[in-house]
Amino acid sequence: MDSFNQLIKQEMVILDQVIRQDLGSQVPLINTVGEYIIAGGGKRIRPLLTILCGKVLGNNSELLYKMAAMVEYIHTATLLHDDVVDESGLRRGRATANAVFGNAASVLVGDFIYTRAFQMMVQSNSLRVLKIMADSTNVISEGEVLQLLNIGRSDLTEAEYFKVIESKTAKLFEAGAKTAAIVSNVSEEQEQHLANYAIYLGTAFQIVDDILDYNSSAEVMGKNVGDDLLEGKVTLPLIYLLTHSTDEVQNIIRAAINEPKTADVNQIVNLVKNSSTLEYCSQLASKFVRQAQQELDSFADSDYRDALMTIAKLSIERIS
After folding, report:
1. Which domain holds residue 227?
2. Residue 87's CATH number
């Protein structure tokens, strides 16, 4: 684990330098908001995944880090817009950009970061990279709208939930892996294995995030427990509990979904914890992690392959 931490630390230092260097603008407010977001840190798993996928393929180019930063820009822009839509006041343990600078500044700086990401894509000189990223950002936007439409839906199915995850979360993981493969000039087979790894990892990652919303703390998550419920979001824990509980419990949950602002969050959290819900969700996330790791079997042993295996393992250990 020490070698893993050292490797990741080295890559993150380079990544942060690239992110800061390319985000600059002649407009002071953009720089202020941008620096506020960057300083907020976060796991940065998407750009790190992009870098490690490239490194597994023997790519150590400056372009690889540019593409990783581009992926992080797209993710950051979606977070800025998400927080405005969700009226969130807390992310990663501190005030959101919209809470500090206002909704207008957050949306407009989010637009700037999106467009800067597309400027960076051009540097790849690859029409395939442009197509993959353009298609992916379009799908991500569709996922955001789907999630909005699903708010307050107590009849949401697992299939519909996974459709949102696939669009909103896993798609950017996949796009980063594919971009790394393209700029590394490797075979379609290797590209597909990395893309599959990324999709499975992204899916597991989101399930774990949804588990943590009912089984963690504000200190660990950087946001308040039960925020998903208070925003009317119906995620896997509630979907499962709605189909595996008594009529009385189902009625309590439906009432909370219908009127989230007045819901007793502690009661719902306890209902989730005192059932088989979290075990089911955890087992499902673990299945996706195993599938992700299996996709790496076709790659030669290396520190970077080991790092990808470890990231998959750590994604599920967040709930242990």
Report:
1. 2-317
2. 1.10.600.10
pLDDT tens for the chain, 320 residues: list them.
778 989 999 999 999 999 988 888 899 999 999 888 888 767 899 999 999 999 999 999 999 999 999 999 999 999 898 888 877 887 767 889 899 999 999 999 999 999 999 999 999 999 999 999 999 999 999 999 999 999 999 999 999 999 999 999 999 999 999 999 999 999 999 999 999 999 999 999 999 999 998 987 654 545 566 788 888 899 999 999 999 999 999 999 999 999 988 889 999 999 999 999 999 999 999 999 999 999 999 999 999 999 999 999 999 998 86
Query: pTM here?
Result: 0.92
The total number of structural domains that make up the chain: 1
- The one-letter code for the residue type at 246 is T
Query: Residue 20: CB partners within 8 Å, gap ≥ 6?
Result: 35, 38
Q: In angstroms, rounded to a whole number, what is the distance separating the alpha carbons of residues 126 and 226?
A: 43
